Amino acid sequence: MEKKQEKIKQYQKEYREKNKLKQKLYHQEYLKNNNQKLNAYRSEYNKTESGKKYQRIQTWKKRGIICEDWDILYDRFINCNKCEKCDNDLVSGNSKYGRTLDHDHLTGNIRNILCRSCNSGLPKQKIILKLECKN
Fold it and tell me: Per-residue pLDDT tens for 74-125?
């Protein structure tokens, strides 16, 4: 049974290598023909907890944040209830006390989980790396 599965995998790999252009064109055509359906699916997915988590992590990656375990970082970020600088309660959203992940823009290293007010008022210098939540 395992030999048969290995043979199928090998055949699929060879097929993909030989037909890269064909598969690319098929994929482009599929996206073109199913754009509304895919957008509706993405819109619904982005409202779920998994979708929100995925979006947040993708945003961090685009901003150059470096992390070994994104799941742990996300859990700490979501479960952190106090600003690590001013000790105010953190809230969801874009308010003055909204939760932000402070990081060094040159290195991508994470510094703190802060309220929006403290994060925007920080001097542009390195701060000791710290990623502990106050609950």
Answer: 999 999 989 888 888 888 777 777 888 888 888 888 888 988 888 887 554 4
| Dihedral (CA of 120, 117, 52, 29) sign | negative
pTM, entire model: 0.65
Rounded Cα gap, residues 123 and 32, in angstroms: 47
What is the spatial distance between Cα 98 and Cα 117, in angstroms, rounded to a whole number? 8
Tally the residues of the chain. 135
CA distance linking residue 10 with residue 101, whole number of Å: 44
Q: Is 106 helix (H, G, I), strand (E, B) or coil?
A: coil
Give me the DSSP letters along 34-83: THHHHHHHHHHHTTSHHHHHHHHHHHHHHTT---S-HHHHHHHHHH--B-
Q: Is 101 helix (H, G, I), strand (E, B) or coil?
A: strand
CA distances from residue 87 to 41, 65, 78, 118, 134 in whole angstroms, order as listed? 39, 24, 16, 10, 8
Backbone angles phi, psi at 3, to 5 degrees: -60, -40
